[in-house]
């Protein structure tokens, strides 16, 4: 008699999302190692990695161009080679963003990010990059802050990977013009610099 194989017909959608998040996170760790994270020199003291996930909408604008909008959500991890804990390490990352996906050409990403620490201090930054959405290179630039981070300035070179995820769940509706679609990826910043002294318990803008 042949054994009966179990069937998995009703996989929990939240379980699939968790699986995708951890897959994206592990991909991010690998990519960061490949970019020389562990071998950064003194001129490149701070590097950032954030794995993120987004729910959003993709619009088919023409035969050669799609447009995606969503909100990245993740955690901002900073490796500081001075041995100090950077004031943005392990902060909550939220980024409303859009990607113009040009078939046969360079993609363009624009967005605004906000970092929030456990004290409630906030730092805003503008992100932009061009290139394939899976390998988009550009800039991270601090634009404003609140609380202890009021007056923050600085930035760094940015690399973002964006992978669109078609949802199979039946609760995702067709919007007519536009379809709901998830995305995941990672965000890397090389040589992050700013005007904040984080050597004390409470960061201070200089």
Structure description:
It contains one helix and ten strands. Strand 6 and strand 7 (154-165) form a beta hairpin. The protein is elongated and about 55 Å long. The chain has one helix at 13-34, and strands at residues 46-62, 65-80, 91-102, 107-116, 122-131, 136-146, 154-165, 179-194, 196-197, 204-205. It has 206 residues and is mainly β. Mean pLDDT is 82; it is low at 2-11 and 30-43. The strands form two sheets. The chain has an eight-stranded antiparallel barrel. It has a two-stranded antiparallel ribbon with strand order 9-10.
Q: Summed up, what is this model?
A:
By secondary structure, the protein is mainly beta. It is 11% helix and 52% strand. It has an 8-stranded antiparallel barrel with strand order 1-2-3-4-5-6-7-8.
Determine the number of helices (DSSP H or I, runs of at least 4 residues). 1
Mean pLDDT reading: 82
Which runs of at least 5 residues are low in confidence (pLDDT < 50)?
Answer: 2-11, 30-43
Secondary-structure element string: HEEEEEEEEEE
Secondary structure tally: strands: 10
Largest sheet: 8 strands, antiparallel, barrel
Question: What tags apply to this protein structure?
Answer:
single chain, 206 residues, mainly beta
């Amino acid at each position: 008699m042949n054994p009966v194989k179990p069937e998995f017909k009703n996989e929990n959608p939240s379980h699939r999302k968790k699986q995708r998040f951890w897959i994206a996170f592990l991909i991010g760790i690998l990519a960061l190692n490949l970019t020389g994270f562990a071998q950064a020199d003194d001129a490149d003291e701070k590097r950032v990695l954030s794995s993120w996930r987004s729910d959003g909408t993709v619009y088919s604008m023409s035969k050669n161009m799609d447009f995606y909008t969503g909100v990245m959500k993740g955690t901002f991890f900073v490796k500081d080679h001075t041995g100090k804990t950077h004031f943005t390490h392990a902060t909550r990352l939220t980024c409303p963003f859009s990607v113009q996906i040009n078939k046969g050409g360079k993609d363009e990403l624009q967005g605004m990010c906000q970092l929030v620490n456990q004290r409630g201090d906030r730092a805003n930054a503008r992100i932009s990059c061009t290139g394939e959405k899976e390998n988009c290179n550009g800039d991270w630039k601090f634009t404003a802050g609140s609380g202890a981070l009021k007056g923050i300035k600085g930035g760094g070179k940015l690399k973002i990977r964006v992978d669109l995820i078609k949802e199979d769940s039946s609760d995702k509706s067709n919007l007519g013009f536009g379809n709901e679609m998830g995305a995941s990826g990672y965000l890397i910043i090389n040589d992050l610099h700013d005007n904040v002294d984080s050597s004390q318990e409470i960061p201070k803008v200089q």
